[in-house]
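Protein in question kept underneath.
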Amino acid sequence: MGSPADRDEAKFALHATRARSFGAHAAAYAEHRPDYPVAAIRWALAAVADRRPPTVLDLGAGTGKLTEGLLEIGATVIAVEPDEHMRAELIRRFPHVTAHAGAAEAIPLADASVDAIVAGQAFHWFDLDRAYPEFIRVLRPGGVLAALWNTDDSSVEWVAGLKQVAGSSASTALPPSGQVDLPAHPLFGEHVIERSTFPHRHRRTAESLTATIGTQSHLLVISPEERAEVLGRISDYLRGRPETTEGEFDLPILTLALRSTLRAAD
């Protein structure tokens, strides 16, 4: 069974491996992952909406799924992404967006250079002890720190059933997005982390939803044999449900958004 320390080390190693797993599948990620609802993005950035346009850092930007929504609301976007393949896909899709190699723990931007930092489906990968001082450094006074996650709406019966059949040996739980907290810091200590949830949907077929789930990190780090078994199980399930067996359907999604605001200078 191993000692608790050994289990913690193994869990940390798996977490790190999952965090690095996306680059080889960047094109599939860009094709199959859902976008983010504009209402959630506007809510996250409400405190800086009067800055026209706000300069927003999309941190851990991946292939630009959140970048697209930020551009839609008129923000000036700077993308930072550590994986060269994900970053190349973002640049291919949005050639006019400034994109840097970098990470939350070492943001390659000047002090007080952005009005907001947002992370889409990425915040749980950050080393917050190292990242938090960087957030403070690059944000302007009154700036926003926000994170968004798309999660399947398991209150829908067939979606809950899908979650049950889609597990793998690497499906150790990440911190539930609703339970993520920011570490204490004097500049944020006065502010409660606000949370809100937004309904969303992703138009899919049985084949494309299977491909979408195949871009999740726990299915990218397992053996080819187990991956094929899990994806086959998912496909069989979707083919056997009346809601998903033929043609296109909507996957119900809940988008969780968290935000906090840097206090203005005295």
About this structure: Residues 4-8, 10-24, 174-179 have pLDDT under 50 and may be disordered. The first strand starts at residue 55 and ends at 59. Strands lie at 55-59, 76-80, 98-100, 114-120, 139-152, 194-204, 249-261. The chain has ten helices and seven strands.
